[in-house]
Structures are given as structure tokens and as C-alpha cells.
Write the C-alpha cells for this entry.
Amino acid sequence: MGGVFNDLDKWRAKYGVGDNAALSQWISETDQMMRNPFDLDYVLKSGMKDTWKACVAVKAAQLQGEESMLRFYRKLMEAIQLFSQDGSKDEIIRKVAAQSGLDVKRFLDDLKGTTASSMFRDDRHSMAAEGGNFFSLLIVGGEKREKKLVSGYTSDEYERVIDGMLGKGFEKKTPIDIVEYLDKRKGYLVTAREISEVFKTEESDAERRLSGLSRSGFLKKEVAGGRTYWALPEGKTMDKLTLEQVNLSHVTERAKVTEPAKLEQAVKDAVKKLYTEVAEKPRGVFHFPVGPEGTGVAGYPAEELDKIPATAVESFAGVGYPHKTNSIREGDTVLDVGSGSGTDILVAAVRAGPKGRVTGLDITDAMIDKARGNIEKSGFKNISVTKGEATMIPLDDGSVDVVTSNGVLNLVPDKERAFSEIFRVLRPGGRLQLADIVTRENVQAACGNSSSALGLTA
């Protein structure tokens, strides 16, 4: 357990979300990608300034057994993230301990003692030593006590690491009975997404089943933070199910979309939404530099930008200055992967000259429209923009002298396929100029937590 922060303001500054609007946008973007079941404003509503005390409380619960700890942790997260309560306050911690069935007196004594705080301190030090952060899990296993830091909210990467540590496939059983699943988690508030993930079925099917069980009076439906949850109340037993309830509870058909496919679509949707806002509201609040501020940070010379329309620069959202490599020569055919509002395709057109040819590729309609408008303003006749993806470039083999890209490939889950496509369209001896974000972590695994971790700061 690495903890999140003991000073909220410093934590927000570290991740570039010191402004409340930027923080809300960050959380909202995460929700759009991963549909996390929480109140999107819980950080601001709860007034919580320090999560370390709550982390020590989880360790105090662990002293009463792993199952007790898991139940306490889940109920504590419900209190904080669903009901926006301050999980660092004594009364909230005590209430959750009672709800979780802990020996409250023993728990409070352990909370005041040194053992729980020492356990948390050891966890933090271990995570820090491995380079972990608030969306990472350090897995320790095997005879050699091998350690592996894994990030994100999709199960595939965790299962792969565990399989590797065990030296064999990890046995995974998919349950078939929703009520049986909830019976072991009485009092938990669950979402359709949780049931979808656990039972390997579509989320719409999970919601249909939960809603049906609620209408029949077996489950309790609750709304918190604008989200819908279901719970199995105390006193409900499986031996009193009607035939209709049995049919709703029993899941036999599996229609689950694979995690990589879900993630890829989630990333595309989040990218399109974010960059539509950058195109249409370039003076909005973003947790990354946009427009002239962005080109200044990236290192674009003013004399180069003076040659292109100002509206091409106002929605710039790149991460560097790829043209510093001077890869584009007069007469070159150039492809810009992720051309945005047109900054780099216009700069490329200046460098390639009237005998050159520049093609922009983007997936966001608003950016494409803006780029085409900027091309018209510029008067260049050798630039075109087309809609398409880095993993399916709509150009012939060996048709391009130079591929340029600025802060885009970090947003592509299937990077190997994207680079394969770039290699395919480049002529023998062709050149790649690239400015992008590089991380030592698995971005695809980590992207479910935050857009900045994913690379939506491009």
C-alpha cells in the first residue's frame, strides 16, 4: 500500500491539477475511459487533505485478517468515493469499522498503536524503492519473493505477471450466479460494470439483470454521486428466490469484449473528446500547455510560426519540436501522424517547398475541420488532411519520404502496429522525426487511472 498523499495541495501540484477545473477534467476523463464507479467531485466534496491516516486504518483492519481488511477497505472507499466523506476523520473510520464487522475496540487500539503505522510505512518505502505511485500495485510472489510493479485497472497485465511468477497458468473461474456472488459481499454497493467484469458479460446485460432483481424486491437499488448501485440487504437468502429471480441471477452466456479491444476504444473516445475541446475551445482550462504557450514550451522558433496562420497555433497541443531534426528536405513527401489543427503540417509544407507534398492524418473531426480551414488561410496547395488512425494509415507502401508525429503515438494502445504502419509507408531510406512522451511503465496498463498517465497531456 503506497498511499496517495499526506498533503493534497502538493499532490495536486505534482500532477498538474492544482486548478479545480483541471482536477475535475482529469477525473472526468478517467471516468470516460474506465467508467470508475465514484462521485466525480468526491476529492473536492470530501474536504480530505490527507489519505495516510485512512491507509493506516486499512493496516489496522488487516491485523484482524485479510478478509476483514478487504471488507473494511471496500466500505471505506464507498464512504470516500461514493458519499464524499472525509476518510481521515475518526468518526468516519470508526463507523466503517463497525459496518465492516470488525472488533471495533481492538481496531481502535491497533490504530493508535505502532504496528499498523509501521506496516504502512514499510509499504510506502517498498513502493518508493520500486518507483511506484498511487495507481500501482507491487506484486510479490514465488519462492524467490520476486517483485513486479504493475499499474492500471485492467486485469490482463496483473494475471500475466502472476502467471509468470507461478510458472504456470493462473486458474481463473468465472462465477455464474449473481446472487451467490452478492451473498458473499452483503452490504457492498456494486455497479453493472463490476458484474460485467466479473461475469464476463456485456454491461447492458448486467444492468438488465440487476434492475430486474431490484424490481422484484430482492436487491436494493441506491443512487449516490449521480451513479446507480445495487446491494443485497441483510436478511435476504438464496433459498427464497423465485423462478424469475433465478433466471436473472444465473449467467450462462458470455458476450464479453476483450480487454484490449475495450481499452483501445476507450482511449479513442477519450482522445476525440479531449482534442475536440482543444480545437473548439483553445482558451479553455487544460492540464497541459496549449497554443502559443505550448509552442513556446516545445521550442518552436517564432520566425517559423510567423509563416503560418495564427489559428493553426492556437490549438497546438504537441509535446516537443520534431522539426529540430531537419529531416524534411525540399521536394519531400511528408506524412504527419496526428496532425491536429495543422501546426506541423504547415511547418512541414514550408520546409518541403512547392514541389513537396504533405498529408495530415487525424481521428478527431473538429481538428480535421480546423486544419483544413488553416490550410485554406495559408494558401498552400500541396497539403491535404484525411481522417484515419496510426494503426491503419490509408497510404500506399513506400509512398512517403518523411513521417512526422508530435505527442500522438503515446496515445495509441497498439504501438507496435502503429510503428509497423509507419515503416510500411516509408520509402527505403525514409526518415522518421518524432516528438513524444516516453515512460518506463506500461502505459496501456496504467491508462485506466488517469489521462495524464495515459498520455492525454499530448
